[in-house]
Amino acid sequence: MPLVLVPPLQGRWEYLRDTVDALDKHMRVLTFSLCGERRSGVRFDRARGLSNYVDQIIRVLDDRRIDRAVLCGVSFGGVVALHAAADHPDRTAALVLASTPGPTFQLRPRHLIYARAPWLFGPLFLAEVPRRFRPEFAAAMPDAHVRRRFALRQLRTFVRAPLSLRRMAHRARLIRALDLTAMCRRISAPTLVVTGEPALDFVVPVQGSSDYARLIAGARSAVLERTGHHGTITRPDAFAALVHGFVAGLQTSSGSGRGRAAS
User: Which of 23, 79, 180, 200 is least crowded, fewest Cβ atoms below 10 Å from its Cβ?
Assistant: First the structure.
């Protein structure tokens, strides 16, 4: 079963390369950079807001003549995947929300200030990154040599796929205008909610992300151990195993159901 992987706030699929490679061992993976990003090939229409990204998912499926797929969104990408699953249930075989901002998520006051003037406060935001993420990376990669290789790969990706703080800030503000709780009530696809450990996610509260498992009918939840918000890239093989197990279980149940119906 094909899977569409929607990237997080930075918008570039390249930062999920290890995740794509891990998932690709189990299923066909389709991904893209969010519209408005360089090389995305798609212009962002401000009047359409988050629907721009939903349209990208549907376009990917249409271009490859795929009727239905697993929609898997990482962080901000989870909000996009949720929106797509609510609007297009006929195209959604299953939904995976990974470390997705919860239905009542709010930016911290200082991050709200950063988002209003990213060109001015962007350096302050970037300066926070090493301090905030160090505990998570140390837990996910106890070996210092492994951490250094990981950091070097991320630096190389940053050079090849530079971030736009302006576009990131705009995406963060888009979440505030959405009624995510109402969207949850419209989800009919089997759903897996993946979070890291509460003490290691320094980006969005795990408790808020876990609310999706309560609000979406029949949703399952899973915790990716020894990591926090960035488990999709710090422990890509473990994340891929969770997703594969979830999807394989659905296919087995579906196959068994067809067998009983045929008999």
Answer: 180
pLDDT tens for 155-178 read 999 999 998 888 988 898 898 888
- Exposure letters 54-64 (e unless 16+ CB within 10 A, then b): bbbbeebbeee
Distance CA 205, CA 217 (A): 21
Q: How far apart are CA 201 and CA 136, in angstroms?
A: 7
- The answer to whether the pTM exceeds 0.85 is yes
E-state strands within the chain:
3-6, 29-31, 69-74, 92-98, 191-195, 220-223
In order of 143, 194, 206, 208, 249, the CA distances from 222 in angstroms are 25, 5, 11, 14, 14
SS3 41: coil
Q: Which residues contact 251 (CB under 8 A, 6 or more apart)?
A: 1
CATH number, domain 3-262:
3.40.50.1820
Q: What is the per-residue pLDDT across 80-105, written as a single tens digit (0 to 9) for each?
A: 999 999 999 999 999 999 999 999 87
- One DSSP character per residue, 52-113 reads HHHHHHHHHHHHTT-S-EEEEEETHHHHHHHHHHHH-GGGEEEEEEESPPPTT----HHHHH
How many Cβ atoms from other residues are within 10 Å of residue 189's Cβ? 22
| Tokens standing for residue 208 | 């808020």
CA-atom Rg of the chain in angstroms: 18
